[in-house]
Design brief:
- The protein is an all-beta fold.
- 0% of the residues lie in helices and 51% in strands.
- Strand 7 and strand 8 form a beta hairpin.
């Protein structure tokens, strides 16, 4: 049974940095794609970043490109999201996601496995 557990959210001021972690367990993820989505109040869940478990082919939403970095430590079965230069519009619940790669991987409906979410709040 796949389990994804996020940690690292919190309340920060604009311009600050945070690192989210996602501990993955329950199977071998070698051929899977891991990533992050977020959902702000009153809005739909949206894609943030993804990376292959092997560490390649990272992709980002335009809104976070150049500020966020997704990475994997396969020895620790952990996926990270380093968030720099945070803005108030980054405020959301951030969810770790995992599934086999498909052309629709960036769409929430294509993802079978989710973490419980961690709140990130950026004050102005």
């Amino acid at each position: 049974q796949v389990q994804l557990v996020e940690t690292g959210g919190g309340l920060v001021q604009a311009g600050a940095s945070l690192t989210l972690s996602c501990a993955a367990s329950g199977r071998a993820f070698t051929t899977w794609t891991m990533g992050w989505f977020r959902q702000a109040p009153g809005k739909e869940r949206e894609f943030v970043a993804r990376i292959l478990w092997t560490g390649g082919s990272s992709r980002y939403a335009d809104s976070v490109k150049g500020r966020f970095t997704v990475s994997i430590d396969s020895a620790k079965n952990t996926v990270y999201l380093q968030m720099n230069s945070l803005k108030p519009e980054d405020t959301a619940v951030y969810y770790c996601a995992a599934d086999h790669w498909t052309a629709n991987w960036g769409e929430p409906r294509s993802i079978d496995y989710w973490g419980q979410g961690t709140q990130v709040t950026v004050s102005s």
